[in-house]
Amino acid sequence: MSIRELRWLEREVKVWEREGLVDAATAERLTARYAAEAANRTPWGRVIFGALGALLVGLGIIALLAANWGEIPRDIRAVIAFLPLTFCAGLHGLGIRRGWDSRAFFEPLGIFWGLSIGAGIALISQTYHLPGEVETFVFTWMVLLVPVLYATQALAPVVGYFIGLLVWVSLARLAGGAGLFYWPMALLAVPIIRDARRESAGGIRANLMLWGAALCSTAALGVTLEKSLPGLWMIIYTGAFSTLFLQGVRSGRCTGTLWQDPLRTLGAGGLGVVLYLLIYEWPWNNVGPQYWREDTYVHGWATGVDYALGIALPVAAAFLLVLVGRGLSKRMWRGQSMTPVCVVCAWGAAPFVTAVAYAVASYAKSDTVPTVIMMVYLAGLGLATLGEGLAERRLLLVNAGTVVLLGVILGKFFCSDVSFTVKGISFIVCGSLFLGTNVAFSRRLKQQGGVS
User: Which of 82, 192, 262, 370 would staple 210 via disulfide (CB 3.0–4.6 Å)?
Assistant: First the structure.
């Protein structure tokens, strides 16, 4: 509750007390309760301005040192390189001693501390002419950033940590190395995200941490794969997105907004994108064991991880599918619709449908049949999602199901040999129907009290 909302509530409580709706003791308890809640809110305005200030100060110090670096003696340079780190460590110790537990203190400190680490590494390397590549610099920076993550538990260092790991693993792969060490490094930050979610599952800090970690790890999954078996990425990615989606459903933390439910949103969105790509023929060309790939960028010892993921992720999705199905099926005994259970199970079954299509493409050597399988499956998902939205009167699901259906229809139609005039008219007609249906359904929801 914001300060403005608290002031409004205090005025209303006084009116209630004056009109005899609540007694004085109840009014006092209500005011005290929400006053405490408002006091515990993270002052994000102060956090943002403090973080920007720390960022500007850090960049300014780096610029000043860079401009005058050549005129400073070597020993003084080494001392200067460690001064910001010493200052941050001392400030953190002072804050802990005095009980400073506000995010407005730890967030700027985390940013300045993280920048100090990178600047310190660069300055020491330049002063003593230490050899090394860019990926070595980034990796060393991320390793030294881990203590800062646990010391401050700040948002910016955690998100920056995952971005840095993604940059490092991309550079390492471009240089011909393996990138599997990304995953144990990423696991080091998981306890911080878990604690933030426990503290406030729907809070800005926890959600942004989870969004950053999930997006970077999803991108890193494709970077770290050896891809020695062409086409295996289809099963791995559908398995990964299904696992994210089902875990988001199982956690039961959906608040009705997309950004506050990162796992479910990213899982469903990622599944939609991957499945949409698989309705075309080009992903199914030259897939299977007969097209085994061996070159300088494939590390034989790491290919086993690809196979392990191709098995482990669908198994994890199947396990979560059983748990989620059991939980959602309880609605049947409460007299509720079974549509949500069917829809969740349909989306969660994506890796198994993809595996069937992959087997057909690999052993039957057909590009058309797996394309038809995935097209029918994705269209069925669109219809099921649309049906759930209509049954539960949820406009978001209606729109999502409609978008999936239109994507399948228009995507295949656009790739056909029909003239652009016919394609343009078809797009206009479909768009008009979509907008008209959306407006009509929105009005109906408002009249019947549906959920937008």
Answer: 262
DSSP code at position 231? T
Tell me: the pLDDT tens digits for 86-113? 888 998 999 888 888 777 788 888 888 9
β-sheet bridge partners, residue 451: 394
Structural contact between residues 343 and 390, judged by C-beta atoms closer than 8 angstroms: no
Phi, psi of 393 (to 5 degrees): 55, 50
Q: What angle do CA 241, 407, 270 make, to 5 degrees?
A: 15
Residue of 161, 294, 279 lying closest to 216 (CA atoms): 161
91 residue type, one letter: L
Q: How far is CA 360 from CA 5, 268, 320, 356, 363, in A?
A: 60, 25, 26, 6, 6
DSSP string, 191-220: HHHHHHHHH-TTSHHHHHHHHHHHHHHHHH
The residue ranking higher by pLDDT, 253 or 269, is 269
- What pTM value is reported for the model? 0.78
Task: Count CA atoms within 13 Å of residue 183 on its CB side.
Answer: 11
DSSP-H helix ranges across 229-349: 232-251, 262-277, 303-333, 339-348
Distance (Å, whole) CA 235 – CA 358: 8
Q: 117 and 141 in contact (C-beta within 8 Å)?
A: yes
The per-residue pLDDT for range 66-90, each reduced to its tens digit, is 666 666 777 777 787 788 888 889 9
Output the CA–CA distances (angstroms, integers) from residue 164 to 61, 82, 153, 206, 265, in the order listed: 22, 21, 17, 19, 24
